[in-house]
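Hmm, how's this folded?
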Amino acid sequence: MKPHFAMMAAYNAWCNARLYEAAAQLSDEDYRADRGAFFKSLHGTLNHILVADRIWLKRFTGEGEVANRLDAILFESLSDLRQARRKEDERIVAYIDGLSEADLAGKIRYRTMSSPTEIEQPLAPALMHFFNHQTHHRGQAHCLLTGFGLDAPSLDLIAFQRISGMGMA
């Protein structure tokens, strides 16, 4: 199971790098424009992905700072957000690299943001959600980019697999 999660961590970083490269082509006005997405703009959507990643990494590791709102704007500039994204992706890769198969078979305990209820669940399905959540919102960001007429990059897992070789053996 660990190779699967290592591939997903690498895929996540690859997608984010491609997405931010495309976002950098937009004017600041377009980047911040409310386009009716769940987090309104590309800026809001990219911030949300980072917010959620930090929440989950705190749950997984017990370390790191988290926002108190899912729509928090952690960074006002795309440049600062991009730098933070790279660091978070490195943190994700390092976390996954440090897991053993026994860790993946274990459980985690955490509290949700919306209630004080403590949740206990197996780690592996929580990691599946973590990576799926990123993909879900990157799809929204991709749609926003194409709405501006940009040739948004392919974010298909199979494209990453063919380029990286991960998941091909």
In short: The radius of gyration is 16 Å. The chain has a mean pLDDT of 96. The CA atoms of residues 33 and 134 lie 21 Å apart.
